[in-house]
Write a structure and sequence with these properties.
Elements: E1 5-9, H1 15-30, E2 34-36, H2 39-44, H3 51-54, E3 59-63, H4 69-76, E4 83-86, H5 87-91, H6 106-126
Parallel strand pairs: 1-2, 1-3, 3-4
Helix pairs in contact: 1-6
Length: 127
């Protein structure tokens, strides 16, 4: 059992990337045992200065689109993920979708709630 879980959200410019980032932020607010990872910093860290932190806690990759960039970036750094949430796949089971990569409307907020619930269940399983 680990004391914290790290969430690694999509930093892409898609509507589901925004959903990913907001859901991770909401999970951090709701769970004192959650940290988030900046994928921009992780991707740009050619010296490996962040590798110790990245290996300290189990990581949940939260991808916005089918490209799975979060997993690819972490894999390129030699970092294994404990689990992956594909926002686009999760939302296929619902009749809501995010449409704007820069703003959340009421439908996108529903998407955030769905992804936040999914993440909270995973966090509970990992801690």
């Amino acid at each position: 059992m680990d004391e914290k879980v790290a969430l690694a959200p999509c930093n892409g410019m898609s509507a589901n990337g925004l959903v990913s980032r907001v859901a991770v932020g909401d999970c951090r607010k709701q769970n004192g045992n959650v940290i988030s990872i900046c994928m921009g910093s992780t991707s740009a860290d050619f010296e490996g200065k962040n590798n110790g932190m990245l290996k300290k806690y189990p990581i949940v990759a939260v991808n916005g689109c089918p490209n799975g960039c979060v997993n690819k970036i972490l894999k390129n750094k030699g970092i294994d993920v404990a689990d992956t949430v594909a926002v686009n796949e999760v939302l296929e089971d619902y009749e809501v979708s995010a449409k704007d990569p820069f703003r959340l409307d009421s439908e996108a907020e529903e998407c955030v709630k769905i992804i936040t619930e999914k993440l909270n269940k995973l966090i509970g399983d990992l801690i």
